[in-house]
Amino acid sequence: MVIEKHICRPVGCVTALVANGIIAVLVLMSPPGMAQGTSTAVPSASQYVKGSLCTQPDQVVFSCPLARNGKIVSMCAAGNASPHTFYYVFGRPHAVEMRYPNDPAASNDGFLHSILGYPGGTGGYAYSFVNNGIKYIVYSVSGKFGYESDGVIVQKSGSLFALADMECSKGKMIETSSDSLTDETLKWRVDNELNGRALPDTKK
Hints:
The protein is mainly beta and 204 residues long. The chain has one helix spanning 179-185; strands spanning 2-3, 6-9, 12-13, 59-65, 72-77, 86-92, 95-100, 112-117, 123-131, 134-142, 148-156, 164-167, 174-175, 189-190.
């Protein structure tokens, strides 16, 4: 939830702090030659949770259409009961371009979480994972005077710079309001490359 434009989580309010696709895109779609998940057949649009690529009855953790191309980035929690398995999806309802992990029965070990740190009362959170040497970062940042920025970043694993940063369409991001679901993501390992820091910039 957002309090005075500061993100609050079960660990407390984050103040002075807060991916084809995540997290998280090269045109949020990976550029030619970039490794990504295998394209798969997808359900009809009516089988998705509204505003996302999460398949019903799964729950939305984070989802938005991208401002540049309208493709959707979603972080999802499978099923209705805890503990959940989580997955990331990128593409359109009729054409999913990437799903991570590909195996629905896979563990959550590949996902990391972090609290982002910025000066001046701005902060946020991010979910990240690495797939075939590419890191995807799904993020949400907010601050004073109504500042908000959400989207997905893609970068080569180990690089200081992002290959692409694709923002969500303004006002279209949705996220879970479930404290118990958020608690589950907080049990993921911390992303030490991001935690307490700002998101990576694209190299100019």
